[in-house]
Amino acid sequence: MVLVDGLDGYLAGSMQRLAAIGQTRAKAASRALGIIVVIFAFGLGGAELLGTELTSVALPLGLSLFVIVLGLRIWARSKGPAARDTQISGVEM
Q1: pLDDT at position 90, please?
Q2: DSSP strand E in the chain: where?
Q3: Which of 52, 68, 74, 84 has a Cα-to-Cα distance from 44 of 20 to 30 A?
Q4: 46-85 burial, b for 16+ CB within 10 Å, e for fewer?
Q5: Is the pTM above the cut of 0.90?
Q6: Is 92 in contact with 86 (CB distance < 8 Å)?
């Protein structure tokens, strides 16, 4: 658990670093990760308040969140499609 949490924190932190220097994809990935973490936190907190036992789903939930963080990190580092030259009647936009 320590290894996964440490790696998870490193990946999220490096995505934040990319967002801080202005990379567009990293900003979008950081925003999406924040929303996902809040949804997970409220979902887990609500389940605990309702008395639901989450021991049986803890591993799949943790692994799914790790895969989401890893996927967002990979997407944030990718270059994406090349920008097209946008010209209309010889006027640059």
Answers
A1: 58
A2: 87-88, 91-92
A3: 74
A4: eeeeeeeeeeeeeeeeeeebeebbeebbeebeeeeeeeee
A5: no
A6: yes
For residue 33, the tally of other CB atoms under 10 A from its CB is: 21
- The answer to whether 32 and 72 have CB atoms below 8 angstroms apart is yes
Q: In this structure, what token pair is assigned to residue 35?
A: 């929303």
Model pLDDT for residues 34-93, shown as the tens digit of each residue: 899 899 889 889 998 999 888 888 888 888 888 988 898 888 888 766 545 455 555 555
- The answer to whether 15 touches 72, Cβ cutoff 8 Å, is yes
- Answer whether 24's CB lies under 8 Å from 77's CB: no
Distances, alpha carbon 83 to alpha carbons 30, 53, 66, in Å:
22, 49, 31
